[in-house]
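Researcher: Good morning. I'm working through a list of sequences from a screen, and I'd like to move beyond sequence-only analysis. For each chain I'm collecting a predicted structure so we can compare shapes side by side. This is the next one on the list. No need for commentary yet; just the structure.
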Amino acid sequence: MGVDEEAFGRRLQEASRRGRPRGSDEFAQNLEKQTNRTLRPLPAGRPRKRPHHDDGQLSLEIGV
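Model: Good morning. Structure tokens for this chain:
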């Protein structure tokens, strides 16, 4: 087994263990559309909060 084959085997095994498709980004996008599932890894961490939008109401703050 050559170096390229060993590297490919490791990448294939890692993708299989994580349940991720092994292929191009376009291939993964097509699979996501067909299966209605997220298959590519999402960014790590908590999603950022959305900016506060003014809904036209006043807020009352009681100060001391």
